Amino acid sequence: MSGNGYAGLAAEVVKQALAAGATDAECTISEGDEFSASVRLRELETLKEAGSRAAGLRILRGRHTGSAYTSDLSSGGIRQMVRSAIELADITTEDPFAGLPEAAELGAIDGDLGLYASDVEGLPTEVKIDAARRAEDAALRADPRISNSEGASFDTHVGRHAFANSRGFAGEYCASYCSLTAVPVARAGDSMERDYWYSAARGFAGLDQPEDIGRIAAARAVRRLGAVKVETKKVPVVFEPRTARSILDNIFDAVHGGAVYRNESFLAGKLGKRVASERLTVIDDGTIPGLFGTSPFDDEGVPTRRTVVIDRGVLQSYLLNTYTARKLGLRTTGNASRGLAGNAGVGNGNLYIEKGAAPPAELIAGIREGFYVTELIGFGVNIVTGDYSRGAAGLWIRDGELAFPVSEVTIAGNLQQMLMNLEAAATDLEFRGSMAAPTLVIAEMTVGGR
Amino acid sequence: MPFAESFFPQRFGIATRDLENHLSEALSQGGDYADLYFEYLSASAISIDESIVKSASQGVSLGVGVRVLAGERTGYAYSDDLSPEKIRKAARVAACIAAGPASVERVSLNEGRRRNLYPVLTAPTETAFTDRVELVKRADRAARAYDGRIFQVQASYADNLRQVLIATSDGVLSWDRQPLARLNVSALARANGGPPQRGHAGGGGRVELRFFLAEKTPEHFAAAAAREAIVMLDAVEAPAGEMTVVLGPGWPGILLHEAVGHGLEADFNRKGVSAFSGRIGQQVASPLCTVVDDGTIAHRRGSLNIDDEGHPTGRNVLIENGILRGYLQDKLSSRLTGAAETGSGRRESYAHIPMPRMTNTFMLAGESDPEEIVRSVPRGLYCPDFGGGQVDITSGNFVFSAAESYLIEGGRITRPVRNATLIGNGPEALKYVSMVGNDLKLDEGIGVCGKEGQSVPVGVGIPTIRIDRMTVGGTA
Questions:
Q1: Which of A188, A207, B196, B257 has the fewest CB atoms inside 10 Å of its own CB, making it the most exposed?
Q2: B-chain residues within 8 Å CB-CB of A260?
Q3: What tens digit of pLDDT does each residue of B180-211 get?
Q4: Which residues, numbered 19 to 78 in chain B, qualify as contacts with chain A under a Cβ-Cβ cut-off of 8 Å?
Q5: What is the pTM of this model?
Q6: How many Å lie between the alpha carbon of A191 and the closest alpha carbon of chain B?
Q7: CA-CA distance, B176 to B306, in Å (whole number)?
C-alpha cells in the first residue's frame, strides 16, 4: 500500500468542517487496489487492475445532518465536499436522536487482528493466473459431463480505511483479501447445470488448493444434472452451510436496529423472549483475528465486540449503531457500518450460528423424506411479517440418503415458525465470509412443485 | 454541439489528440481494439423517516476506464485521476493483455451522429435542494393521510447526472449527458395492534424535476404504497403448487427480464452456457408473445442515447410471435461472433468492464380484454405487483416474487394473499401464455438490474397476460 496518514487527513477534514460551521463532524477515507484475473477453457480471458480512493463527510449543525463525498482528495475537492455537506444541513429536519457516539464509547481494540497479509500485494500476475487456470483445469478434468465452463477467477483487494471525528477519534487500518472461484458447467442430454465453489482468505497462503476448489465445483454441478420437479408437499428441509448462511442473513435483517425501531421486523419488541428453538444460538463477533467481519473499530469509531444475539432460542440483543441504539433506549453494539454517503447504517461483524453436536450426515440419516437445499434464488423474504418463499434447488432425501436432484421448486413458510422449528444445527461450521452457519434442519416447510 | 464545446473538453481540457494518443498507447502491445470511457457522476439523495428528513447527501465521482481487446481477451484498468500521465499509465496496464507488436495503425477519431432521447434542460441534480426535499415531505404526508392504519412511512428521493465521453479505436467519438431521478415510498400499516404489513411504490426516469410535480407526483406514489400495505392487512395464506397465473400490466414485466432477457445476453450464448444457447429460430414462447428490448423510448429509466461502448441503442426484437430472433450484443460478442451490434453494452461505472445488458424489456400488446382474461380463469392467482426476481441462466430456472396478489375464484378476483415467489423455466414458461391483453403498460421507472456485481437502471413492461401453468410458492 502506498502512502499513509489518511487518519491525519480525515482529522484535518473534520477540522475544516468545524471551521466552516459544523458543530460535529465525522470523516471516512477509503483507498483500495483491486486486481482480477479470469481464465476460461484454459485461456486467459480478462485482466483488471486499478486503484482508487475517496472520502465521505457527515456533519451536524445542532441536530441537523448533512453529508457529502468526493473522489477528488485535492484541497479543492475537500473544500467543495465540506461546503456541500454544510449546505445540506439546511434542508434536513432537526432530529433529537442525531449525533456522534459519546467520547467514552470511542476507541479501537488492540493487538494484531490479522486483517492484512503481506503476501497479497506484489503477488506476481502469473501466479494469480496460474491459480485460476489450475482450479478450472481440475474442474474440467473432474468428470466427462463437465462440458463447458464459465471460467475461474482470482481476485484480490488491498485497502486502507481511515476514520476521524470531532470527539477526538482518529484511526486507520489496512486489510487484504483474496479469493479463487471456479464455475463449471455440466451437461447430460438436455440437462445443463452450473455451480461454483470458492475459497477466500486474508492472504494467499490461506487459500485452499486450486485443484480442490475445481473438483468441488465440478461435483456440485454434476450432482444437479437430471433434476426433477417434485410434487407439492410439506417435508423437513435441510439447508447446507451455503444456503443456511442465507437464513442467517434473514436473522441479521430482523435484528438490524433500523428495522427494529421502525417496527418493520418480526423480531421487534421481542427482546428477552423466546424467538427460536433452543438449538439456535447466534453470535456476532467483530474481534476474531483474521476473519472477514473483523475490524478494530466500527464505522463510527466504536470498538467492535462480541454480542450474543440469540442464546439458546432467547433473543438477547439487537445489532445497533449509535442512532438506532438511542432510538431504542439502548447502547451501541459497535455495529455501525457506512459507505461514504449519508448516515451510518448497521452491519455485521462475524455473524454466525453456533455449531451443534451431530455431523450433517447423521442428521440426514434420520430423515425419511425431506429436501436438502443447495441453492436458493430470489428475494421472497418479508422481514416485516417473516413470510418466506424462495426458489430452491437441491437433492431429495429418501430413507436418510440424498436420492436424486430436484429443481424449479419453491420452499415456503414463515421465519418465526422456521426458527421455532429448527431441529438441529450440525457440526460443520466454517467461516468462508463474514456470515457463517452450519447445516441446519427445519422440521417442516412447504415445497411447491408439480 | 461540437466536441470541443462538450463537457470533458470544457471542464478537463481533454482534446481529440489526447484521446487518440491514449488509444494508441492502449494498443501498443498488439491489442486489436481499445476504448476509453470517461465518467463524471454527480449524485444526491434525500430520505425521510418518521416524518423527519434524516439524511441528505451529495457527491461526485469521476474517472476513466481503459479497455483493450485481444481476440477473446480483455485487459482493463481505470484511474480516478484524469491527468494525462494517469490515463497513460492505465492504458499501459490494460495494454498488457496482448503480447506482441502494435498492429493497429494510428487511431483517428470522428464525431458520431447525435440524438437526444432525454432533452432535459435542467437535470434534477442541478435544481435547488429546497425543491427536492419537498418531494419526500409530500410523500410522507400523503401516505399518512391515506388511511389511519398507516403508522410508518419512509420515502427516499435520489437523482444523478452522468456525463460520459467514449472514444474507440475504430474511430468513434461520442458523448452523452444522462440525467436520472427516482422517488420511492414505503408504508407500514397495522390494524388493531395486529402484525404490520408493508407496501411499496416508486418511479421516475430521465426527466426534469417537473415530472414529479406535474406527472407522477409524490402523492401518486404515496397512495400506491399505502394502498398496497392496507390491502395486505387482509391477506390470507398463498396457495402452493402449479396453477393458472394472470399477471397485471406494467412492472410484472419483470417476468420477461428474468425468464428470457438475461438468457438472451450474448456473452452467455457465445459461451454456450445459457438455456437459450443455439436456439435462434426455435419456438420458445406461445405465438401470442412478441418481446422487444428497446433503449430508445424517450425519458425512460432504461433508455440511453448511446450504450456504454458508444454505440446507439436500438429496438431489438428478442422473440417474435413465439420464435427466438436474436441476442443482446456488446462489442466483444459481436466482434467474436460477427453478429450486428445491438447497442446493449453497458457498465455500472468507469471502474467496470462493459457487458451485454437489457434496457427496457417488454411484451407487445395482444388483443384480449384484460377483464375477459380474469373472467376466463376458474381458479388461479392474479398478480398486479412484484418485488424482485432472479434467474439461473444455465438451467433457465427463474423466480419473481409477488408483492401484491389475489386469488381468482370463479373468474373473479377475490381475497389478497401473502407474498409468494413464482418459479418457472425460461424456455418453457412463456409457452403456456394463452391470452395477451390489449393494455401494454411500461413500469413506473424503478428497476435496477444486477449482473456479475454490476447494477444498471432498466425498465420493463407487459400487458395483462394469462399463463396456464406456473408454480406458486405459497404455504396453503
A1: A188
A2: none
A3: 999 999 999 999 888 899 999 999 999 999 99
A4: 43, 45-63, 72-78
A5: 0.95
A6: 7
A7: 7
Last residue of a domain, one of B232, B263, B291: B232
Q: Which domains does chain A have, with CATH numbers?
A: 6-222 (3.30.2290.10), 227-450 (no CATH)
CB A49 within 8 A of CB B93: yes
Q: Is there a single domain that holds both residue B158 and residue B251?
A: no
> What is the domain range of residue B354?
240-473
Closest by Cα among A375, A410, A232, A393 to B420: A410
A50:B62 CB<8 A: no
Cβ contact B399–A45 (<8 Å): no
Contact flag B58-A72 (C-beta cutoff 8 Å) = no
Question: How many CB contacts within 8 angstroms connect chain A with chain B?
Answer: 257
Domain termination site, one of B232, B257, B284: B232
Query: Which chain A residues are within 8 Å of B40, Cβ to Cβ?
Result: none
CATH of the domain at B10: 3.30.2290.10
| Any B CB within 8 A of A93 CB | yes
Q: Is the minimum CB–CB distance between A55 and chain B shorter than 8 Å?
A: no
Residues B422 and B456 in one domain: yes
Instruction: Name which of B55, B78, B241 is nearest A343 (Cβ-Cβ).
Output: B55
Q: Which helix (H) or strand (E) holds A141?
A: helix A125-142
Residues of B (205-264) whose Cβ lies below 8 Å from A: 238, 240-242
What residues does B176 pair with on adjacent strands?
B164
Alpha carbon B376 to its chain's center: 33
> What is the tally of structural domains in chain B?
2
pLDDT tens by residue, A317-351? 999 999 999 999 999 999 999 999 999 999 999 99
Average pLDDT over residues A270-283: 98
Closest C-alpha among B84, B180, B83 to residue B125:
B180
Q: 3-class DSSP state for residue B336?
A: helix
| pLDDT of res. A1 | 37
